[in-house]
Design goal:
Structural class: alpha/beta
Number of strands: 10
CATH architecture: 3-Layer(aba) Sandwich
Strand order of the largest sheet: 6-7-8-3-9-10
CATH superfamily: P-loop containing nucleotide triphosphate hydrolases
Oligomer: single chain
Length: 253
Amino acid sequence: MQEHSIVIQELDFRYGSSPALKNINLEIPAQGVTAFIGPSGCGKSTLLRCINRMNDEIAIAEITRGSIHVNGIDIHDRSVDVVKLRRDVGMVFQKSNPFPRSIYENVAYGIRLRGQKNTAIIDQAVQEALQAAALWDEVKDRLQESALGLSGGQQQRLCIARTIAVKPQIVLMDEPCSALDPIATAKVEELIWELKSVYTFVIVTHNMQQASRVSDKTAFFYMGELIEFSETSRMFTNPRIKKTEEYITGRFG
């Protein structure tokens, strides 16, 4: 039986009086890539942000029913440290958001935040994270330069390096390539593919070609409901639900 990193059961979520997610049941397997697809406003990003409780920052946002377990732990249990949860469940956003600091400091920041003071250990961890993000060879001679001087694609890979530097178990990605050109997009996709044996990835994307290229499983959402969830190859060649087929073939959305 395959281990599940994230188990979502009977989840209802709303913003104020507006329902955003309805009765979501989803089991996301460990060490692979799961894509969330669907038209704008269907609940993909909302669900993604539920997984590391980012929606806690929105005053009118609330889960009204159901549960989310990450590696067997109920993330809404009172004993859960939200800071630790967000370290274990890292997030890469749609727009790359490097800190206005050096390339080195961007990656070292989270390592220091965890209490590491040994410079040699931090140096090694920074190098390993940049290598894992396929960025080391491009920046190793300019680590003290501002991260804001990197190209858009390099900035996004730096944000991935910063996320994985603290050794999360899960990496959430919200439209990580939407602002990138095709070459930078290909590099990020290749990176996801190479790292999926180590991390569990959940990626929200509007790009169905991207979902078909990088993901092992795909979840299709519509109007706040999970319509279909299956192996990506099956969903894109033989979807079970007519609405899924209509979306994938471009008949709506």
